[in-house]
């Protein structure tokens, strides 16, 4: 199908974006990489009167390391994150997750800000941001605020963004040198929507895992921090017994809804499989 | 607010200026305005890959980019990349290996494969399959396509 008739403005500044959003409200949509939005327009699942193209606002693009944190501009593409030496060095979880995002031609255009603002429950970046305790920088006409990733995702395609606001950056504190990460995902084919996925981060102390964070995607309306499994594994060595205990605890952490292909029971089973795989990587 | 915009693109090396409706995606513009029908329209939701073209040297989904978004950018299609000879080795290999039947996916397949050949020489069959997982072929079963790309990678 074809997109409905619409107006288009290529924004030259965030101030212009805020002014347009104030005038047009929910009749306007912000266009970043467009890799979900334009598909939605083509399918007529979305029919805004105005597209505000922010893709050439270079000051909210790029990866910068400063004061023990990595700041990623909202317009940074998945491919830029995948190839970034800074990301590989300081936030390897993101480099591990990026190849699972759709296909190379989509990763060249799609942006991290767009993915986070859309909040697709099967998307990789929301779970990574929750696992890494990222802060999302949100700008609006009246100023800038920061929201922890775990508070940003409110439900199915629902976020803490208010009308008139734009997500501009992701800030992630660089984990210490003892931290390990793993990203594992199951999909029908490489690049398809995840049936289930897991972003995992932990500190290795002796042979044990500390400060473990397990953030699932594809098994809830938003990323799910598996607190029961995290507690079951905290301070313990990775072994068949501890993996089994963590996997068992997932029954209370997750309440997956079935999709077209997988029942709730299948999703829970696959989440357990992923937990075993991720913990094996963290413990290795 | 404008529903059509004066837009200039460099298509296969030639500057082209048109007034383009904002709603028109890049592939419809290339096919219907410029007659470059080598790029195909498939799913129009970014899944099938038959609309793969290059924008500023990077492969993109032509159905997931509005033509007006490509203002000032360089767009290369299967026509331009065939004429330049850049795809010649892959095209010859696809021919020799019978890596196409109906040909609908082939332009997108070739452009996606060339991106891979250029960036990952010596890649395994598994990596070829991963890279091409976003380009659907409903005829060949992929085996011959992977064979053809592997032949070029081994040269």
The CATH architecture of the largest domain in chain B is Roll
Structural category of chain A: alpha+beta
Strand order of the largest sheet of chain B: 2-1-5-3-4
Q: Estimate the global geometry of chain A from the Cα principal axes.
A: globular
Q: Any guess at the CATH architecture of the largest domain in chain A?
A: 2-Layer Sandwich
Cα-based radius of gyration of chain A, to the nearest Å: 19 Å
Number of helices of chain A: 12
Strand order of the largest sheet of chain A: 4-5-10-6-7
N-to-C span of chain A: 49 Å
Give the biggest beta sheet of chain B.
5 strands, mixed
Which two chains share the most extensive interface?
A-B, 36 and 35 residues
Number of strands of chain A: 15
Which outline of chain B best applies? elongated
CATH class of the largest domain in chain A reads Alpha Beta
Q: pLDDT below 50 for ≥5 consecutive residues: which ranges of chain B? A: none
CATH topology of the largest domain in chain B: Ubiquitin-like (UB roll)
Task: Quote the average pLDDT of chain B.
Answer: 97
Give the DSSP E fraction of chain A (strand runs of 2 or more residues): 25-35%
Please give the oligomerization state of what you see: heterodimer
């Amino acid at each position: 199908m074809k997109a409905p008739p619409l107006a288009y403005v290529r924004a030259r500044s965030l101030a212009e974006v805020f002014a347009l959003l104030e005038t047009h409200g929910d009749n306007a949509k912000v266009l970043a990489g467009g890799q979900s939005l334009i598909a939605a327009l083509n399918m007529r699942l979305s029919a805004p009167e105005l597209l505000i193209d922010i893709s050439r606002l270079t000051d909210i693009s790029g990866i910068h390391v400063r004061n023990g944190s990595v700041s990623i501009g909202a317009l940074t593409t998945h491919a830029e994150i995948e190839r970034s030496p800074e990301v590989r060095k300081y936030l390897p979880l993101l480099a591990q997750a990026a190849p699972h995002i759709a296909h190379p031609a989509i990763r060249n255009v799609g942006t991290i800000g767009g993915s986070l603002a859309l909040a697709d429950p099967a998307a990789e970046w929301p779970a990574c941001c929750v696992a890494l305790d990222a802060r999302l920088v949100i700008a609006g006409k009246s100023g800038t605020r920061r929201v922890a990733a775990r508070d940003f995702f409110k439900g199915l395609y629902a976020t803490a963004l208010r009308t008139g606001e734009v997500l501009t950056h992701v800030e992630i504190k660089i984990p210490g040198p003892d931290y390990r990460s793993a990203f594992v995902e199951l999909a029908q084919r490489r690049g398809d929507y995840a049936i289930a996925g897991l972003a995992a981060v932990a500190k290795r102390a002796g042979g044990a895992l500390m400060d473990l964070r397990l953030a699932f995607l594809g098994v809830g309306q938003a990323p799910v921090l598996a607190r029961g499994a995290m507690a079951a594994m905290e301070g313990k060595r990775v072994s068949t017994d501890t993996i089994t205990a963590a996997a068992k605890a997932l029954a209370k952490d997750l309440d997956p809804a079935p999709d077209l292909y997988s029942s709730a029971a299948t999703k829970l089973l696959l989440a357990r499989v992923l937990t075993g795989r991720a913990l094996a990587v963290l413990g290795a | 607010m404008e529903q059509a915009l004066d837009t200039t693109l460099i298509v296969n090396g030639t500057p082209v200026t048109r007034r383009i409706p904002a709603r028109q995606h890049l592939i419809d513009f290339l096919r219907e305005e410029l007659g470059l029908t080598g790029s195909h329209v498939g799913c129009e939701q970014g899944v099938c890959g038959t609309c793969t073209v290059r924008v500023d040297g990077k492969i993109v989904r032509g159905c997931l980019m509005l033509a007006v978004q490509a203002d000032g950018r360089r767009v290369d299609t299967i026509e331009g990349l065939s004429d330049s000879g850049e795809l010649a080795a892959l095209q010859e290999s696809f021919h020799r290996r019978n890596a196409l039947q109906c040909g609908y996916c082939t332009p997108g397949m070739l452009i996606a494969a060339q991106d891979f050949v250029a960036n990952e020489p010596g890649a395994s069959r598994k990596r070829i399959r991963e890279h091409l997982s976003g380009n659907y072929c409903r005829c060949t079963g992929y085996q011959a396509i992977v064979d053809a790309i592997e032949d070029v990678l081994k040269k």
